[in-house]
Amino acid sequence: MGVIVRPWLLGVALLGASALCAQEGPGRPNLARSADRNDWTAYFDYGAAAIRSRPRRADSAFYWASRLDPSRGEPLFGRWVAFWLQDIGRFEAYLEEIPSTLTLPEVVRADSFYRRSLERNPFVPQNLRVLPYAALPGEWLTDVGTQGWLAYAKGDYRSALERFGRLVIRNPQRYVGVHYYRALAFVPMHHFDSAGAEMQTLISTLRRRDTTGTTSHVYESKELVEYGIGLLARAQGDGAGARAAFERSLAENLGFAPAHAELGDLAFERRDWVAAAAEYGLAVELAPSDGWMRFRYGSLLANIGRPADAVPELKLAIELEPYFADPYLALSAALEATGEWQGAMRAIEDYLARAPRRATELIARAQRRLTVLRSGK
Fold it and tell me: Rounded distance, CA 185 to CA 319, Å?
């Protein structure tokens, strides 16, 4: 059976819930003695090395990478790949859209990893994506779409673009989602304008399908497409274009928390504190279990002169993501601003216990501040 990399943009994964799945975490894999157990990249690299032969162990490593830095989409995407590698027959049934497979609780849960990775970054690196396709039975190497993913996986983005482009030329309507694949390849090359053009073509096609009644898996994901367009506009310094795209994203789905957060950041940049806090307030209301979002909201409140309001948000962020170092440092500053010196010192100590070694500047700054606080100056 020939295997074709299918043209769905984000797949049925986007139909899954985006809330954090409540679960007991797996044990931490044993890293090399020289590895930094506070660094998400150490666990991600371990998982990427183990995923072909030990996908279950890789999943554990990706889990810990996501807990150490919940802002990153790569570990969540890795968990999606690791899930399918544990049962290729189930992956084949998933691609064939067998209803009994699509509705399995474990499949819905895995799809939520994919959705959440894209909420973190719609252009999250997807170099691992080809692995479950490579494990499928039958001839697959000759398929031009699969060849595109193989080139992407190796970092040969120009070849990936050429092969994905051949798919679009072959059948623009069938392979409309390949415009997203091409955007993925443009982003690591820093060709944000070209990536944006691909996404604009994609969203225009999706909107035309709205009027014709054509159905597609990507139909449910227009808020993510517009969100990606907004992030690409921000990367090019186009604040107005970004704001318009995020607003269009919310027109598709008013409950899409990441777009509210980005609008909050844009409001902060133009010094509209009221709008910034309002947008972030909506974001955390819509995603109450998202520790990364709580951290961003608390940091924003502290930065607009509301440290007393920031403290409970940052404490909640820590409760949700206790292994993530950054909220402890933000909490220390907010506590110090409210006169809680002892709490500020404890928060800095907690930060230093969790900070990855590569955060040299922040660690040095935290150590200096801790020295000052201990001296009572």
Answer: 37
Is the whole-model pTM more than 0.70? yes
Q: How far apart are CA 322 and CA 354, in angstroms?
A: 9
Q: How far apart are CA 304 and CA 288, in angstroms?
A: 22
Q: Return the domain boundaries, the chain.
A: 1-25+33-139, 141-253, 290-377
Which CATH number does 290-377 carry? 1.25.40.10
Which tokens hold the place of 205? Answer: 């096609």
The string of pLDDT tens digits covering residues 41-88 is 999 999 999 999 999 999 999 999 999 999 999 999 999 999 999 999
Residues 6 or more apart whose Cβ sits within 8 Å of residue 300: 264, 268, 276, 277, 280
Would you give the end-to-end CA distance of the chain in angstroms?
Answer: 73
Give the CA-trace dihedral at 320, 323, 324, 330, to 10 degrees. 80
Q: 196-216 pLDDT, tens per residue? A: 999 999 999 888 876 544 434
- Looking at residue 373, its pLDDT comes to 95
Percent of the chain's residues with pLDDT above 90: 80
Check if the beta carbon of residue 295 is closer than 8 Å to that of residue 327.
yes
Return the half-sphere exposure (C-beta side, CA atoms, 13 A cut-off) of residue 148: 24
Q: Return the CATH number of 141-253, one of 2.60.40.10, 1.10.760.10, 1.25.40.10, 1.10.10.10.
A: 1.25.40.10
| 141-253 shares its CATH topology with 290-377 | yes
Tokens at residue 18, please? 């985006």
Question: For residue range 101-151, what is the model confidence (pLDDT) as tens digits?
Answer: 999 999 999 999 999 999 999 999 999 999 998 888 876 666 788 889 999
Beta strands in the chain (DSSP E): none
Q: Is 373 exposed, middle or buried (0-12, 13-18, 19+ CB in 10 A)?
A: middle
Residues 6+ apart with CB under 8 A from 325: 38, 68, 351, 354, 355, 356, 359
Averaged pLDDT of the chain: 89
